[in-house]
Inverse folding.
C-alpha cells in the first residue's frame, strides 16, 4: 500500500502543476497614453505619459519618442524616464525652431514596446513663447495661446513670388500694420511651415 502512495503522489503533483502552468497568461505589451506638450520653446518642450497597464510584466523602460514624422518610434529621438507603471514626465530637448514635431509616449516590457497616440506641437509655439519668426523673410509676429491652440495675433505680411494678394486699400504703406490680403489658394500657399488656415471646428 505504501508503495502505491509513493508512486501516485508525484503523478498527482505533476497533474496539478500542469494545470497551473496551462492557466498562466503570456504578457502583452504595456498600455500607455501620451501627455500634451507643454512649456514649448525654440528648442525644448515637456511631455510624458501614463502607463495604465504593464501587460503582466515589469516595465523596464519608459519615456517619450519624437520626430518630424507622424509616427515616431524608439528608433528616433527618445527620453528614458525610469521603469514601472504609472505616470511620468519627460524633458524634450534639441528641437529646431519653427518646426512641427510629433511625440508619443512609450513603455517596454518583455513582450515588446507599446506606444501612446501621437501629439503634435510646433517648436517655439505655446507655453511661454509669445512670438513667431517667419524664417522666410525674418518678420516677427505676436502669437496667443487659447486652450490648446496657438494663433497668430497679427496678419501675415509675407510677399509671395506668385499668386493673388493686395495691400489694404491698395496702399503698400498699410502692409506693416495690416499685412497682406490673399485669395484662398494663395493664402494656403503662403502659410508658414507648421501652420495652417483654421477649420470651422477650430474656429468654434
Amino acid at each position: 500500500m505504501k508503495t502505491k502512495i509513493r508512486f501516485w503522489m508525484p503523478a498527482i503533483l505533476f497533474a496539478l502543476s500542469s494545470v497551473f502552468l496551462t492557466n498562466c497568461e503570456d504578457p502583452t505589451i504595456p498600455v500607455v497614453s501620451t501627455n500634451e506638450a507643454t512649456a514649448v520653446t525654440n528648442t525644448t518642450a515637456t511631455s510624458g505619459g501614463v502607463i495604465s497597464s504593464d501587460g503582466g510584466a515589469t516595465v523596464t523602460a519608459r519615456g517619450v519618442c519624437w520626430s518630424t514624422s507622424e509616427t515616431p518610434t524608439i528608433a528616433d529621438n527618445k527620453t528614458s524616464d525610469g521603469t514601472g507603471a504609472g505616470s511620468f514626465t519627460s524633458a524634450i530637448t534639441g528641437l529646431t525652431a519653427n518646426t512641427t514635431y510629433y511625440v508619443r509616449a512609450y513603455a517596454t516590457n518583455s513582450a515588446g514596446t507599446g506606444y501612446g497616440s501621437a501629439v503634435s506641437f510646433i517648436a517655439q509655439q505655446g507655453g511661454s513663447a509669445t512670438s513667431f519668426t517667419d524664417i522666410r523673410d525674418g518678420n516677427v509676429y505676436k502669437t496667443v495661446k487659447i486652450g490648446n491652440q496657438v494663433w497668430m495675433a497679427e496678419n501675415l505680411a509675407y510677399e509671395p513670388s506668385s499668386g493673388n494678394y493686395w495691400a489694404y486699400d491698395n496702399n503698400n504703406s498699410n502692409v506693416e500694420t495690416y499685412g497682406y490680403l490673399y485669395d484662398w489658394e494663395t493664402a494656403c500657399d503662403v502659410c508658414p511651415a507648421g501652420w495652417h488656415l483654421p477649420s470651422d471646428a477650430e474656429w468654434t
